[in-house]
Design a protein that fits this description.
5 domains; 17% strand; four-stranded antiparallel β-sheet; Nucleotidyltransferase, domain 5; alpha/beta; six-stranded mixed β-sheet; 18 helices
Length: 496
């Protein structure tokens, strides 16, 4: 540009000829003539396509390769180098890699998709799942977080789960609606299998049963993006990245998912005070326009769980999602209904809930409740020492002392008495039973009846009344009677 200005100054101000200027600056006279026509360089515009004698015969092959790549996974598409290698090895191309790279780059630039700016009316939402690494309860794990955004206001909601499951999907909607205080008119999704059972030939979606139940409960309209077109729901795609970069960096460390989600909810609320570039008002102020057209009031929360039938086997175990959960032995071999929540598994038989367990996300795990097996162990006391449900049951030390005393004084019957004591925890809290055991040991008595009596007295706040003279499990001394002849024998022995 500096040369351009000097040449124009020399001709128009100094008054030298264009040929003289060409000689002075060492450029072509035609170039000087062009400089005189424009105050600034007009830019170069190619009038004819470039002539590439080595490449032109192969451009059709390149076009076919990059066109076919559009339907392939991104990580398995051809690079320019790979296209060059195929042209050389399969088609006899003798040119260099540079002209191939330039052609491919130009082709991709010309065929990039264009987008129309969109306006988002209030009352609608987009939702999706994302992933991030975290440490929960001291264990490094993958966090699957659900993200919902209201495109009109840019208000967001994010919540994390151990896995991207049906029950997590439903629970996230319940939490999101409670967070916003209403239900959006419509929600835009990708084609997740949790919601879409099948895409029909005409592009219509066949919904899953659970998603249809969720939709019927909250009465929102669903919308789905085109398969493989993440830009159809660009707002939530952007939110997933934003949440990962801003809420989950550095790697989050929390004691539980409940603590993590409390933190994420706080982050979402704080963001409502932000004012985004190019938008009038804060996010919270624009959120009011969204809420004005939301469906309110909220109905009762949807029961966010996966339901499936099952049956208890001979070990009183019920299989759910590759793991086994115990039920009371009285329900062995019976049909049950399993409800899988995000953090809990609830098992029912008929209208009765018979078991509750913390949810395991491992595989081939067995989750026992020791109390489920005590009724059977009362009958089969020989299995007490090897009973797997009791193997990892950590009890206060006084229970060990009680068992030792009972077995020492009563043998096999003492084992049964000990199991009966444990069964008190089917009704009473472990702290109350443990206190009753300690009281028994302090009084020098050992037995189920005594422990039960003392536990009841503790709960009812009344003094205990144990009849120590007739209590059957007090240690007893056997005193033999001595005859007069025995005394004479003893005396005779003394005299000797």
């Amino acid at each position: 540009m500096e040369l351009y200005a000097r040449v124009r100054h020399a001709v128009q101000i100094e008054g030298i000829s264009e040929r003289a200027a060409a000689d002075r600056f060492g450029i072509n006279a035609r170039t000087v003539s062009k400089m005189m026509k424009f105050s600034v360089p007009p830019g170069y515009v190619r009038k004819k396509p470039p002539f590439r004698p080595k490449l032109d015969a192969f451009t059709g092959i390149i076009d076919a390769i990059v066109t076919a790549d559009k339907d392939r996974p991104k990580k398995q598409r051809h690079t320019s180098r790979r296209i060059f290698e195929r042209l050389r090895d399969e088609h006899g191309f003798t040119g260099g890699i540079t002209i191939v790279k330039d052609y491919v780059a130009g082709w991709r630039q010309r065929t990039q998709e264009m987008f129309v700016p969109l306006v988002h009316p209030p009352g609608h939402a987009q939702a999706d799942f994302g992933e991030a690494l975290g440490v929960i309860g001291g264990v490094e794990c993958k966090i699957h977080f659900f993200a919902m955004v209201l495109p009109h206001s840019d208000a967001i909601f994010v919540v994390g789960y151990p896995a991207e499951t049906t029950e997590a999907f439903c629970d996230a909607h319940v939490r999101a609606f409670q967070f916003f205080g209403g239900v959006p008119q419509s929600i835009l999704y990708d084609n997740t299998k949790i919601a879409v059972a099948r895409i029909l030939g005409d592009g219509k979606r066949q919904r899953t049963r659970v998603f249809s139940e969720l939709q019927s409960h909250y009465l929102f309209t669903d919308r789905f993006g085109r398969p493989g077109k993440g830009n159809d729901k660009g707002k939530v795609e952007g939110l997933v990245g934003y949440a990962r970069r801003n809420f989950l960096v550095p790697v989050p460390v929390f004691e539980s998912f409940e603590a993590l989600n409390a933190y994420l909810e706080d982050c979402c609320r704080q963001r409502q005070s932000d004012r985004l570039r190019g938008r009038s008002g804060t996010i919270g102020e624009r959120l009011e326009r969204d809420l004005a057209v939301f469906q309110v009031p909220l109905p009762a929360p949807y029961d966010a769980c996966e339901k499936q039938p099952g049956s208890a086997n001979s070990l009183s175990l019920v299989r759910y999602r590759y793991n086994d959960y115990s039920v009371p032995t009285a329900y062995g071999h019976q049909k049950v209904l399993i409800r899988g929540y995000v953090h809990e598994v609830v098992i029912s038989c008929g209208a009765e809930i018979i078991a509750r367990h913390p949810r395991s996300y491992e595989r081939e795990d067995i989750v026992f409740n020791p109390l489920h097996y005590l009724a059977l162990l009362e009958q089969k006391t020989n299995a007490l020492d090897q009973a797997a449900p009791l193997a990892d049951w950590v009890l206060p030390e006084e229970f060990t002392t009680l068992r030792r005393l009972l077995e020492a004084r009563m043998g096999k019957k003492g084992k049964r008495e000990f199991v009966q004591v444990l069964r008190l925890m089917e009704v009473f809290k472990i702290d109350d039973v443990a206190a009753g055991v300690r009281d028994c040991l302090a009084r020098g008595v050992a037995g189920f009846d005594a422990v039960k009596h003392l536990v009841l007295c503790r709960i009812e706040r009344r003094p205990p009344r144990l009849d120590m003279t007739i209590y059957p499990y007090l240690p007893k001394a056997v005193v033999a009677t001595t005859s007069a002849r025995s005394y004479m024998d003893l005396l005779a022995g003394v005299g000797a």
